[in-house]
From TrEMBL, chains A, C:
The keyword Flavoprotein applies. The gene is pyrD. It is an enzyme of class 1 (oxidoreductase). GO terms for biological process: 'de novo' pyrimidine nucleobase biosynthetic process; 'de novo' UMP biosynthetic process. NCBIfam families: PRK07259.1, pyrD_sub1_fam. Its main location: cytoplasm. Belongs to the dihydroorotate dehydrogenase family. Type 1 subfamily. This is Dihydroorotate dehydrogenase. The keyword Nucleotidyltransferase does not apply. The active site is at C131.
Automatic annotation (TrEMBL), chains B, D:
PROSITE patterns: FAD_FR. One of its GO terms (biological process) is 'de novo' UMP biosynthetic process. Responsible for channeling the electrons from the oxidation of dihydroorotate from the FMN redox center in the PyrD type B subunit to the ultimate electron acceptor NAD(+). Residues 2-102 form the FAD-binding FR-type domain. FAD binds at R53, P54, L55, S56, L70, F71, R72, G77, T78. Belongs to the PyrK family. Gene3D superfamilies: Dihydroorotate dehydrogenase, electron transfer subunit (2.10.240.10), Nucleotide-binding domain of ferredoxin-NADP reductase (FNR) module (3.40.50.80), Translation factors (2.40.30.10). [2Fe-2S] cluster binds at C224, C229, C232, C248. Keywords: 2Fe-2S, Electron transport, FAD, Flavoprotein, Iron, Iron-sulfur, Metal-binding, Pyrimidine biosynthesis, Transport. Its cofactor is FAD; [2Fe-2S] cluster. SUPFAM superfamilies: Ferredoxin reductase-like, C-terminal NADP-linked domain, Riboflavin synthase domain-like. HAMAP family: DHODB_Fe_S_bind. This is Dihydroorotate dehydrogenase B (NAD(+)), electron transfer subunit.
């Protein structure tokens, strides 16, 4: 018998728990030569802002041991372009499309959510709160419970779509932030965004990245990400989408056992364009081999 | 269309200091590839080094289903790649990117190669020769030992003029100096350039000053290689507007006069 | 001409900027078959507590991509044993010995510092503030500026030895903690301790480590550590000992360029027992090759 | 005293399912090693997999300066190791740990090996045979194909009794069942045990019940291998007190009656 892989993220039904991580999968078509993206439970697309953005100076990417640092700087064509050019494509897809949004102010987040609310083809919003709060001296929204909750409330009020808040790991107590955004009306959480890092070019004696600092992702961060999911799971009731260094099904299962209802494949797609599908197939195989009827039985099972 | 597959190593040997030639069995990629495209190569099965490495398609033999690479050992990835033995497999993603714009058959063209920049230009000259173009190759390197592919170019009936920094072969000086003497490239339909960035920038300036069309093949650090991650942004000026293009998907080949060098 | 490698950490003079990271180098003798430890600028020994500790249940160590998670749990014979059995050995060494201390309460830290104050053979104290504050519900001392400063003040008052506060990276704003402990009288900072992480055994469906969570170290964390040193350097005037994933001289130079006056080699010793000496030799070679007379010229040089 | 050095691979071949034999040129380590000690092996030059892997010293030839390993491919590290070719080098740290306690010459001894646990016991039997001991080896494995080193033990004049889970060779059952029938080990000066933990625990119980001295070789996940990191703690009871000992430096061999099994 085929095990049941279906999960729910708020009111969004996913045929299986696998999605892609925002910023690592473009808008979808980039990867269609390599896998049938419609087999995934959802795809999560590149971070979108109110206005188009040019992004950061290059180099924007540097490899680190088992990881990468990126400072793309949210280069994107803006929400209006997305609605006009990509939404019609999303609508045709036989899978959910999660749109990731980012803003400089609480109002921008609310505007973005309002604009995307009635757009056909969009299944949910993922809210990137690792962006600097321009009005608060550039501290990230996601770095304290109060501003994280403010963003959540504003987005919540502006949309009827499921609202997924994406947490930053660069905090003292990620569970406290999770709890605050749950209270503020989030339907789900994405855990984790990248870790703040940097690299220095010892020949030039300067930071490697054009933007000095960047976000660390890939297998290197997996232990931190699993820990974050574990801590958040102990504190909130809403579902978690786990991510951070998932390269294969075994990695994904660590997140599910730690408490993730779904998982996102990010950096792995760069190394293996078929990674997301292989993660899905591997999870299914694990369930079959272990006689587990329903993926939900595994969610958080390592908490004993 | 592009593929991801395990290719069998057919041959690998050193051809110059720190420079390796590798032949791979990859019929699907060989069939689809055009000059100027590249493959994204997995150099390790472990998670360090993590990323693929972009390497130009150096030559293809479609009948044999063979694809060749020519690469310099720079760091961890290329070092591991150079250690592969015949019979081993190498995971390839490709062909990727947009290749060179081919001229009308029989055209007069110039090809400018600096160091390892010769790699993609052999495949290009293969095609140009098939199109019966009249080809001059300006080939530069540090010294005689580091001159790459001169024999291959000559065999394909290209005229080859050589410059070495130390004068150990051909003209003593760099490719720019060489071009400044040899003015034939001014009369070409197209000049194709690949080499170190400063050299390409200077050649682009030379071409612009002479109002000659050219194409350069740019290198940027890459994540995905397929246009999804926006790591590989290059600034391209078009109709007075500067926009970010993706070296992997919109390039690596760009018109020489559109590149905004920094 | 041989470049000048000498640096100062408070009043402690180091012949060169290389030390070992606490907990990775035992008490010194473990590595004497492989390198002349007296050539190092200092050695930093295993974390010491007031009472002997048994440590955590096994497994205590698990490998992760380019890193390791450990949960040794401060197994150590206690400060009295250290004073009686190891101090006489330290005294004979022709290098500095930095003793790392850890406590459950502010008083314990003060007691430890007082006990070690007059002991010959000890050059400085490194204070591990990543330990849970038993009186504050187990939140780490190092996770907020107030308790970090409290520990610093208490240790400062109890000793005339140089006081090095070792910062935890598991915080929202490491520079704020750095600034608070500088103000409270720290002579120097060690940056960073391990990142909180975990791994799950998907066959057993349980955490791998006996203690559930552990500290992530090794090359995987280097980008986070370099970033932390960079941020702290911008905020404080006291010297920084940089650490986190240093495997070779190139890595060490990243830390120095980011602002570290000295560096500590940790996990690397497990992979290459000669790592610390090779780091030292490589730094020296870099200085010679680049015609730099004094290592101090490089400290923070990447800030431009 | 222990060394860290690059050892040249002299030979490597598969001897049983997933099991490899490797010969290395390492005269300094061969000279110093005693049975029960191990080497800490670097399986990759990259940073993933990061840690060394502990492997017992399987055999040494001091005159030839050769050290042999016998290992099972379990995961990433051993898989990479099995791929090394003659002529490659492998970085070794060793010899490490405290070996087996040797009996008086001519003693009667028992050796109990489960699966890959045979690896260190061949070196031990080499020494015991040199000491003219009377040796019985109880050798267990899943099936005939997986029985390791029986020929080597026989050659060294040890009596070898075999148990396989499926009965495809020797007694059908496990080593414990076998020992319960063969009571000779009760009359030995020492019983040496290496194998999976549950098997060692049961043998230890058997020995304790019969009041026979034994030694077991324990496995714990290791960081440094030299006693510095305290990763490899094992609980040892001594004079009524339970303390943490380091498998790498205080062991891996411990008196069977002192181990606190969990
Ligand atoms: C489209 C394209 C085609 C190329 N074709 C060739 C070729 O045919 N032959 C050849 O020898 N080289 C070629 N290069 C350069 C080649 O990709 C790098 O030399 C190689 O990635 C270095 O990897 P490494 O691990 O040895 O070096 P490291 O310095 O250890 O690499 C570290 C990281 O930096 C990246 N990197 C380093 N140098 C470059 C570079 N010049 N361009 C892009 N990324 C770089 C690596 O990919 C890796 O992610 C090409 C680059 C591009 C972008
Ligand atoms: C003192 C000692 C002697 C040993 N001698 C031998 C021998 O002669 N032949 C042999 O085949 N095996 C031996 N082992 C077991 C061997 O160390 C492991 O099988 C090996 O480390 C697995 O590495 P891996 O990368 O293939 O597996 P992975 O499972 O990928 O390893 C992941 C991590 O777990 C550790 N690990 C996994 N299994 C073990 C284990 N059983 N013991 C300790 N660490 C483990 C690895 O070292 C590594 O750090 C010995 C272990 C010890 C402690
Ligand atoms: C190149 C790149 C671009 C990214 N862009 C975004 C983004 O636009 N919005 C966002 O919320 N996260 C972004 N991320 C973070 C990922 O979605 C993900 O949270 C993180 O990379 C951890 O997962 P991974 O280790 O599997 O990549 C980006 C990551 C990378 C590597
Ligand atoms: C096995 C192990 C034990 C450690 N024990 C201590 C300790 O007792 N006290 C302490 O302050 N830090 C301890 N650390 C942290 C290290 O000193 C260091 O801060 C950290 O490992 C980062 O450096 P690295 O990546 O070079 O190892 C320990 C680290 C490891 C790996
Ligand atoms: S490398 Fe990802 S977009 Fe070019
Ligand atoms: S492995 Fe480090 S103490 Fe044993």
């Amino acid at each position: 018998m085929k095990p049941n892989l279906q999960v729910e993220i708020g009111t969004m039904l996913m045929a299986n728990p696998v999605t892609t991580a925002s910023g690592t999968f473009g808008f979808g078509p980039e990867y269609t030569p390599y896998l049938d993206i419609e087999r995934l439970g959802a795809i999560t697309v590149k971070g979108t802002t109110l206005e188009p953005r040019e992004g950061n100076p290059t180099p924007r990417l540097v490899e680190t041991p088992s990881g990468i640092l990126n400072s793309i700087g949210l280069q994107n064509p803006g929400v209006d372009y997305l609605i006009e050019h990509y939404a019609p494509y999303f609508r045709q897809l036989k899978t959910n499309v999660i749109v990731n949004i980012a803003g400089n102010t609480v109002e921008e987040y609310a505007n973005l959510a309002a604009k995307l609310n009635s757009v056909p083809g969009i299944a949910a919003l993922e809210v990137n709160i690792s962006c600097p709060n321009v009005k608060k001296g550039g501290l990230a929204f996601g770095s304290d419970p109060v501003s994280a909750a403010e963003v959540t409330k504003a987005v919540r009020q502006a949309t009827t779509l499921p609202v997924i808040i994406k947490l930053s790991p660069n905090v003292t107590d990620i569970a406290a932030i999770a709890s605050a955004v749950e209270e503020a009306g989030a339907d789900a959480l994405s855990v984790i965004n990248t870790l703040l890092g940097m690299a220095i070019d010892i020949r030039k004696r300067k930071p490697v990245l054009g933007n000095i600092m960047g976000g660390l992702s890939g297998p290197a961060v997996k232990p931190v990400a699993v820990r974050a999911v574990w801590q958040v799971y102990q504190r909130v009731k809403i579902p978690i989408i786990g991510m951070g260094g998932i390269m294969n099904a075994a990695d994904a299962l660590e997140f599910i056992l730690a408490g993730a209802t779904a998982v996102a494949v990010g950096t792995a797609s760069f190394i293996n364009p078929r990674a997301a599908i292989e993660v899905l197939e591997g999870i299914e195989r694990y369930l079959v081999e272990n006689n587990i009827d329903d993926i939900k039985e595994l969610v958080g099972a390592a908490h004993g | 269309m592009s593929k991801v597959l395990d290719a069998k190593v057919l041959a690998v040997y050193q051809v110059a200091p720190e420079t390796y030639y590798m032949e791979l069995e990859a019929p699907e990629i060989a069939r689809l590839a055009v000059p100027g495209q590249f493959v994204h190569v997995r150099c390790s099965d472990a998670q360090d080094p993590l990323l693929r490495r972009p390497l130009s398609i150096h030559m293809v033999s479609r009948p044999k289903g063979v694809l060749a690479l020519l690469f310099r050992v720079i760091g961890q990835g290329t070092e591991l790649l150079a250690k592969r033995q015949p019979g081993d497999t190498v995971n390839l993603l490709g062909p990727l990117g947009k290749g060179f714009t081919l001229p009308l058959p029989g055209s007069r063209v110039a090809v400018v190669a600096g160091g390892i920049g010769a790699a993609p230009l052999v495949f290009l000259v293969q095609e140009l020769a098939n199109m019966k173009c009249q080809i001059t190759v300006y080939l530069g390197a540090k010294d005689k030992k580091s001159i790459l592919c001169d024999g291959q170019f000559t065999q394909m009936d290209a005229e080859v003029v050589i410059a070495t920094d130390d004068g150990s072969m051909g003209f003593k000086g760099n490719v720019i100096d060489l071009m400044e003497r040899h003015m034939d490239w001014r009369k070409t339909a197209m000049t194709y350039v690949c080499g170190p960035k400063p050299m390409m920038q200077r050649v682009a300036a030379l071409l612009a000053a002479a109002d000659v069309p050219g194409e350069v093949s740019l290198e940027e650090h890459m994540g995905c290689g397929v246009g999804a991650c926006l790591s590989c942004a290059v600034k391209i000026a078009h109709h007075g507007q500067i926009t970010n293009k993706r070296a992997c998907a919109d390039g690596p080949v760009f018109p020489s006069w559109q590149v905004v060098w920094d």
